[in-house]
């Protein structure tokens, strides 16, 4: 490790109010959860701070629970916990599927949802899935002696490359999934990388469909992508192209056309080319829609 660990100061609060008081300080520490993103920076000698706020003792950031309005996932929830949770597998199985595709087992054991959202990488695997699930982020800060909380819809949380709507004195406390997105919706997710494990995605897509029964129509769709823009993004033109249509390969093609014409403007970078990304993004959408809507992409309806 090239960073000088002995030179770092680590605060280890047991209560959320105490942690938030430290963040209200002018010499604000940098929050650290699983450390899987931060250790990379430390190892390369690019420590983002000298003082750290270890979140690992904060029970208020843990737990997966049903609430009157949906599901509440504590910010310290790891990928391993998502995979193992019966509640998640029953009510939002796409999240368990996503968690199984992150890094390898060691990263799944330590990496957290809050850390992924705090890091705000455009290549995050959780972000597109949570966008498709219409998630919101619960943030907390200190206001004098009080802890104040606010909710930010995830589609307004990512405001620029690795930039979020959270203020520096706020912690991500939980991720909230509304019941309206859990009942009557089906979800599918796929990540394309160089290999199955330990690969940052070249393209990642998540699709949610609400299907009406008679006639069989797409009542609503939510589609999100990662690795295609400076932030994870919703594909609203593709969503609009599907609304009210029967789930057929023609509808899938129309959505893919709208996606590439209006929603996504991929770039060339180290991991992939813009042309490859565009091709894969369109094919992924048709394939995920086919899996959810019960049609075979490419075949005439
Ligand atoms: C080898 C390797 C493979 C990986 N593979 C994948 C992959 O396949 N898919 C993927 O999506 N990611 C991957 N990652 C990235 C990383 O594991 C995830 O982003 C993980 O979820 C980060 O969580 P963490 O708890 O470790 O974050 P940390 O490193 O602890 O923190 C990350 C950032 O979030 C901030 N933060 C943490 N918690 C909070 C909070 N509660 N409130 C406010 N800010 C907070 C920190 O200050 C820091 O800026 C990989 C990383 C490595 C090293």
Name the CATH class of the largest domain. Alpha Beta
Strand content: 25-35%
Domain unit count: 3
Across the major sheet, the strand order is: 4-5-10-6-7
* Run of helices and strands: EHEHEEEHHHHHHEEEEEHEEEEHHH
Span between termini = 58 Å
> From the alpha-carbon coordinates, what is the Rg to the nearest angstrom?
20 Å
Task: List low-confidence stretches.
Answer: none
Main sheet summary: 5 strands, antiparallel
Q: What's the helix count?
A: 12
- Annotated CATH topology of the largest domain: Uridine Diphospho-n-acetylenolpyruvylglucosamine Reductase, domain 3
Question: Structural class given helices, strands, pairing?
Answer: alpha+beta
User: Share of helix among residues?
Assistant: 25-40%
Q: Total strand count, please?
A: 14
- Overall body shape: globular
Structure description:
The chain has helices at 16-24, 38-43, 79-84, 86-91, 93-100, 105-110, 113-119, 126-132, 179-182, 236-242, 249-263, 274-293; strands at 9-11, 30-32, 51-54, 64-67, 70-74, 136-143, 146-153, 158-160, 163-164, 171-178, 185-192, 203-212, 217-226, 233-234. It is α+β, with helices and mostly antiparallel strands and 301 residues long. The protein has three domains: 6-54, 2-Layer Sandwich (Uridine Diphospho-n-acetylenolpyruvylglucosamine Reductase, domain 2); 61-180, Uridine Diphospho-n-acetylenolpyruvylglucosamine Reductase, domain 3, CATH 3.30.465; 188-293, Enolase-like, domain 1, CATH 3.30.390. The strands form four sheets. It has a five-stranded antiparallel beta sheet with strand order 4-5-10-6-7. The structure holds flavin-adenine dinucleotide. Flavin-adenine dinucleotide is lined by residues 30-38, 40, 55, 61, 75, 102-103, 107, 110-112, 114-116, 118-119, 124-125, 171-172, 198.
């Amino acid at each position: 490790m090239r960073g000088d660990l002995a030179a770092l100061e680590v605060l280890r609060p047991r209560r959320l109010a105490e942690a938030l008081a430290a963040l209200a300080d002018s010499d604000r520490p940098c929050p650290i959860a699983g450390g899987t993103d931060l250790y990379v920076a430390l190892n390369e000698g690019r420590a983002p701070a000298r003082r750290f706020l270890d979140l690992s003792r904060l029970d208020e950031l843990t737990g997966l629970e049903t609430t009157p309005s949906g599901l509440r996932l504590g910010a310290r929830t790891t990928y391993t916990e998502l995979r193992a949770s019966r509640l998640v597998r029953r009510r939002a199985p796409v999240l368990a599927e996503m968690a199984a595709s992150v890094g390898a087992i060691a990263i799944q054991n330590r990496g957290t949802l809050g850390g992924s959202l705090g890091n705000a990488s455009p290549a995050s695997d959780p972000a597109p899935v949570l966008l498709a699930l219409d998630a919101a982020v619960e943030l907390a800060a200190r206001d004098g002696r009080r802890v104040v909380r606010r909710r930010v819809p995830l589609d307004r949380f990512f405001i620029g490359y690795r930039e979020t709507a959270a203020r520096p004195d706020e912690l991500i406390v939980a991720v909230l999934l509304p019941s309206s997105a859990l009942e009557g919706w089906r979800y599918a997710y796929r990540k394309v990388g160089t290999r199955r494990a330990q690969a940052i995605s070249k393209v990642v897509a998540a699709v949610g469909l609400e299907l009406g029964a008679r006639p069989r129509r797409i009542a609503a769709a939510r589609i999100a992508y990662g690795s295609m823009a400076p932030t994870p993004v919703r594909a609203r033109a593709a969503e609009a192209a599907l609304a009210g249509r029967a789930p057929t390969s023609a509808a899938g093609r129309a959505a893919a056309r709208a996606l590439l014409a209006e929603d996504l403007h991929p770039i060339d970078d180290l991991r992939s080319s813009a042309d490859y990304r565009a091709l894969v993004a369109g094919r992924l959408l048709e394939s995920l829609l086919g899996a959810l809507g019960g049609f075979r992409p490419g075949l005439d309806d």
